[in-house]
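Supplementary notes for students who missed Thursday's class. We covered one full example, reproduced here. Read the sequence, then the structure, then the short commentary at the end.
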Amino acid sequence: MNNVAFIGWWAKGLLFENCNCQLVCPGHVHFSNNCTEERCIGYWAIRFDEGSYGDVDLAGVKAVVAYDTPQHMISGSWTEAVIIDDAASSGQQAAVDDILAGRAGGPWEVLGRFVERRLPTRTLPIEITDEAAVKRIAIEGLLSSSIENIRGWDRDQPVTFQNMFNQVHGSTQVLAQGDATYDDGEIAVKNEGTHALHSRFDWSVSPE
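Structure (token representation):
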């Protein structure tokens, strides 16, 4: 997997997801759990708010990782596709592709060990809307999705996981439900009111 020499990089930003599991996706808690459907199909939406990959500034780059996995995610044999915003520079696109394909170390390298089939990376316009309780993403002709925080006892506060370990998410994760339509000809899903959550990610890799 490590066919690109690791350079120093770091990134912080917004990460949200939706899949076809009922809330909460068992695979999100641990890949050894069986997901609620025969296959777990969904996406991670990523907005880099700050960061650098070597001397490449990552701020402002948006991307999506779509996936189709077995019910038992730890078994591997995932199919995965990366889409990067076409507004990013060629240097940013190459850097983000290295990160999300797992070639640059860090959390995505761990997830990459489960990927058997990686579809060609695409560059398309990506729109992300970030409101307090609602996150939306749109890629014309490919992905349309929104997630909304579930309501807790205190309606002014989100329902959260605290200190929840996850390879890509931050330690505080906000629980949500979402709708999504995604179809790239290989990975396809239509979700209504299914598992979703969001967090602030913080990734870094020291240079080798």
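Commentary. Residues 90-100 form the longest helix (11 residues). The mean pLDDT is 97. If anything here is unclear, bring it to office hours.
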